[in-house]
């Protein structure tokens, strides 16, 4: 028998792990990139209607995160629960966990949709009194809320596939859904499809909402049929979807609760940030909007790797393989760092070019250059936080996310911004520096909890 050294064994394990992580993450990256593209195109079509339509959709999307927090809570819980059950080899528990995620999340979505629909009109009036903007927001918002259970369930489909080690199927589903949305948008929105003489349905902003929900229904239908037909590793039982298992449902509601609070804290901080940015004028607000769009694109590899590595970590912990869980996290962090260093260099060297993609307004460009350099380069710290965060999502120990958010945003970022804007009255460049400091603080907190090791013994399955 040939002698195999310990280093050679380690190299084989590292190669296998890299293959597994990339196999889980690359399809997710491609799917999310396409999602980002069609979100941009969706807004581009709405913008061609009129400014009121664009404002209405923007305002509704801003408050839509209120119900999105519920998806964040249950979705985060389901990742650790499904992945750990699957990693332990218990197929029955895995099936039940998937079924309960479908059922419980859909039920929560029904309740949340009814409540949000009841308060939507007065909530929108808090932001605007323009009747045309309100009409657009309501036309777009009501149909999105009506199909909220389907939207939540489509997220469950993607989560379940990834937790079973299959990232290609949700990518293919997202590709199909994106194409459906891209095709339907101009057909449903306009009286005549732009660039052609082909008549459309002329539904306006309602057509944009309708295109979105149709693509969501298609995505859910494909994935749900695959699970029902047994064409994947787990075949769900339709009649069991009408049962509630309180032990599992309680876990779905509580494991991800810190993530829900973190999302709430994050959004409230964003609202305060926007209010402070308005003190620098319209150009600063416009610049922030552009930089936020660039940040969303830059975050795609981080989010995708986090989803892939969290699923693998959950499977490893389900099989009580802590060393492989640690190796997965370290590899994800290294890949994150490499990607964000490249993106940061581009942002530092070519900020004016990036701004000109979106606008030719000199004041907006001038305000955006320091914002791009500081905010996007701070993603180097976010890369480490995201990589280390894989162990928390995978284990179900999500408290560090909440603590890191509270400390970085409410003890560091917001006070720093108040000091810059109200007390010292410094330029907006210093305002962007507060984001940089906050992301660095978040990284330190996440590293502390990673090294503390509580996650190593955490199990939820």
Compact description:
The protein is mainly alpha-helical. It has two domains: 22-255, no CATH class; 258-461, no CATH class.
Q: Would you mind describing this structure in some detail?
A:
The chain is built from 18 helices and no strands. Residues 1-13 have low confidence and may be disordered. The protein has 2 domains: 22-255, no CATH class; 258-461, no CATH class. With 461 residues, it is mainly α.
Largest sheet: none
How much of the sequence lies in strands comes to under 5%
Average pLDDT reading: 84
The coarse overall form would be globular
**Low-confidence runs (pLDDT<50, min 5 residues)?**
1-13
Order of helices and strands: HHHHHHHHHHHHHHHHHH
Gyration radius (Cα, Å) is 23 Å
Oligomer: single chain
From the N-terminal CA to the C-terminal CA, the straight-line distance is 40 Å
Helix content: over 70%
Helical segment count? 18
SSE class: mainly alpha
Looking at this protein, list some descriptive labels.
461 residues, mainly alpha, 2 domains
Layout of helices and strands:
Layout: H1 6-47, H2 51-63, H3 65-87, H4 91-125, H5 131-146, H6 148-163, H7 168-189, H8 205-229, H9 246-254, H10 257-277, H11 282-318, H12 322-349, H13 351-356, H14 362-377, H15 379-388, H16 390-395, H17 399-423, H18 428-452
Helix pairs in contact: 1-7, 1-11, 1-12, 2-5, 3-4, 3-6, 3-9, 3-10, 3-11, 4-5, 4-6, 5-8, 6-8, 7-8, 10-17, 11-12, 11-14, 11-15, 12-14, 12-15, 14-18, 15-18, 17-18
InterPro entries: MATE_fam, MATE_MdtK, MdtK-like
Membrane topology: Multi-pass membrane protein
Organism: Clostridium collagenovorans DSM 3089
């Amino acid at each position: 028998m040939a002698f195999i050294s310990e280093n050679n064994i380690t190299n084989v394990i590292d190669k296998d792990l890299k293959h597994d992580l990339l196999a889980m993450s690359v399809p997710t990256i491609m799917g999310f990139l396409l999602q980002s593209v069609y979100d941009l195109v969706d807004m581009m079509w709405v913008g061609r209607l009129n400014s009121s339509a664009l404002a209405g959709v923007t305002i509704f999307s801003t408050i839509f995160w209120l119900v999105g927090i519920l998806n964040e809570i249950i979705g985060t819980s389901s990742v650790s629960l499904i992945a750990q059950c699957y990693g332990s080899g218990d197929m029955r528990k895995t099936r039940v966990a998937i079924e309960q995620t479908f059922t419980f999340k859909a039920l929560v979505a029904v309740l949340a949709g009814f409540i949000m629909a009841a308060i939507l009109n007065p909530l929108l009036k808090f932001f605007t009194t323009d009747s045309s903007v309100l009409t657009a927001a309501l036309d777009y918002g009501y149909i999105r809320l009506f199909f909220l259970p389907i939207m939540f369930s489509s997220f469950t489909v993607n989560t379940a596939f990834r937790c079973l080690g299959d990232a290609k199927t949700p990518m293919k589903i997202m590709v199909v859904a994106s194409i459906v949305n891209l095709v339907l948008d101009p057909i449903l929105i306009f009286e005549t499809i732009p660039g052609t003489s082909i008549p459309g349905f002329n539904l306006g902003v309602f057509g944009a909402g309708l295109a979105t929900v149709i693509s969501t229904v298609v995505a859910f239908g494909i994935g749900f049929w695959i699970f029902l037909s047994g064409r994947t590793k787990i075949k769900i039982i339709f009649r069991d979807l009408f049962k509630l298992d309180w032990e599992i449902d309680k876990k779905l509601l509580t494991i991800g609760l810190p993530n829900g609070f973190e999302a709430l804290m994050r959004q409230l901080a964003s609202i305060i940030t926007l209010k402070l940015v308005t003190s620098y004028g319209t150009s600063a607000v416009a610049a922030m909007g552009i930089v936020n769009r660039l940040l969303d694109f830059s975050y795609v590899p981080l989010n995708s790797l986090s989803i892939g590595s969290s699923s693998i970590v959950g499977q490893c912990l389900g099989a009580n393989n802590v060393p492989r869980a640690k190796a997965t996290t370290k590899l994800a962090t290294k890949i994150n760092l490499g990607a964000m260093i490249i993106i940061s260099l581009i942002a530092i060297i070519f900020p004016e070019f990036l701004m000109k993609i979106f606008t030719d307004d000199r004041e907006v460009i001038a305000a955006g250059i320091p914002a791009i350099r500081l905010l996007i380069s701070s993603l180097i710290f976010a890369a480490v936080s995201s990589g280390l965060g894989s162990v928390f999502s995978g284990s179900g120990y999500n408290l560090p996310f909440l603590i890191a958010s509270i400390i970085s945003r409410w003890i560091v970022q917001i006070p720093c911004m108040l000091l810059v804007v109200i007390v010292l009255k410094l330029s907006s460049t210093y305002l962007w520096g507060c984001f940089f400091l906050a992301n660095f603080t978040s990284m330190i907190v996440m590293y502390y909890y990673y090294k503390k090791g509580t996650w190593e013994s955490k199990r939820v399955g």
